[in-house]
Design brief:
Radius of gyration: 25 Å
Helix content: 40-55%
Strand content: 5-15%
Largest sheet: 5 strands, mixed
Shape: elongated
Mean pLDDT: 78
Number of strands: 7
Number of helices: 17
Structural class: alpha+beta
Order of helices and strands: HEHHHEHHHHEEHEHEEHHHHHHH
Low-confidence stretches: 1-21, 103-113, 231-247
Distance between the termini: 58 Å
Length: about 350
């Protein structure tokens, strides 16, 4: 992803003074809309619409979807604050950070430079994040095979601090797994929820609260991947395949809905019941199906049409019995639906 036009200004601010209560600086476009699009996709998987998160932020869907636009710090904070309220999940920040597509435009770029030294690679990752997402300032230290990354506020976030710190920690964990193991996260705020739920967010991690500072401690893995042409090709394929993976996820939901409807095409094949079976909200289920180019009613109607035709051709069941099995209250309702599907009357079949 190309660096934003304001990165030199962002880097200057980061390196020369803490950016707290900087007034008009809050309204300087510093953050790529790339991250806004990812956040909207994240909240939408939880049944929350993008328009509800963008409300009163000065942003709209067209702006966020424009790859050449930047968001201001004020806008980023507004969106994150609104999203946090609607998500009502204190671990959402860390999980969003884990899902950010930083491998595609961060670690990939460093791999292309054929950087073999994990310490130099870690330092480059930190510098990249400091400039690309200037929400927190960062420093990095090395003690033997231990890497320590400290986080400090670049702005006054008030109650939003835990969310933003969690996003950074999730992102650094996602990137750090390329070269490190045994992660320890230390947060200077109280645990917002049960500690157990936090420690289940990722493998080989420990998360501690009420510590003096915010920092990530991780050890360099003794077995570093060899950065050769094949490795770079793999990184490149991963980055370029992100959209395809998202599409496949939506197609997976379509298949799950189809299978669930095949198992029970009757009254239990409602959108609400199937969404509950899939541990999704009805709104989120509709969105996945819409992105995949279909709708719940279309899937269910196709399944019911298939069952109905088989029942009519291969059994001696009455129309009343068939109607009941397929979730219709009476034969006339079923007959009307069948005509809509096939253009034929059940009796003709």
């Amino acid at each position: 992803m190309p660096l934003c036009n304001f990165e030199s200004f962002a880097l200057l601010l980061i390196e020369n003074e803490p950016m707290k209560n900087q007034g008009r600086a809050l309204d300087v476009p510093l953050v790529s809309s790339h991250y806004g699009r990812h956040y909207l996709r994240f909240v939408q998987t939880h049944g929350i619409t993008g328009t509800s998160v963008l409300e009163n932020s000065g942003l709209d869907l067209n702006t966020v979807n424009d790859p050449d636009t930047q968001m201001t710090i004020r806008q980023v904070c507004h969106v994150l604050r609104k999203g946090s309220i609607l998500l009502n999940d204190v671990t959402a920040g860390f999980r969003f950070g884990q899902q950010l597509d930083l491998h595609g435009h961060g670690i990939l770029g460093f791999a292309l430079l054929r950087q073999h030294d994990p310490r130099k690679l870690a330092r480059m990752v930190v510098q990249y994040l400091r400039v690309s997402i200037p929400l927190m300032d960062m420093d990095i230290q090395f003690t033997g095979d231990i890497i320590t990354i400290g986080l400090s506020d670049a702005w006054d976030y008030a109650e939003l601090r835990p969310t933003i710190i969690s996003i950074y920690m999730g992102s650094i964990y996602s990137l750090g797994t390329q070269i490190c193991r045994d992660f320890t996260f230390e947060c200077d705020f109280p645990c917002p929820d049960k500690s157990l739920s936090w420690n289940k967010l990722a493998d080989n991690v420990a998360i501690h609260f009420n510590r003096p500072t915010n920092r990530i401690v991780m050890s360099i893995s003794p077995h570093q991947p060899r950065i050769d042409d094949a490795s770079m090709a793999n990184f490149l394929a991963t980055a370029r395949s992100r959209k395809q993976l998202d599409t496949n996820d939506n197609l997976r939901v379509v298949n799950l809905v189809s299978q669930s409807t095949l198992n029970d095409p009757g009254r239990n094949s409602s959108l609400e019941i199937i969404a509950e079976k899939l541990d999704m909200s009805p709104r989120s289920l509709r969105r996945h199906l819409s992105v995949a180019g279909t709708a719940f009613s279309g899937i269910r109607n196709k399944v019911r049409e298939t069952f109905a035709t088989r029942y009519l051709k291969e059994t001696c069941m009455s129309l009343e019995k068939i109607a009941s099995l397929l979730g219709y209250s009476d034969p006339s309702s079923f007959s009307k639906a069948y005509r809509n599907w096939t253009g034929r009357n059940p009796g003709d079949v």
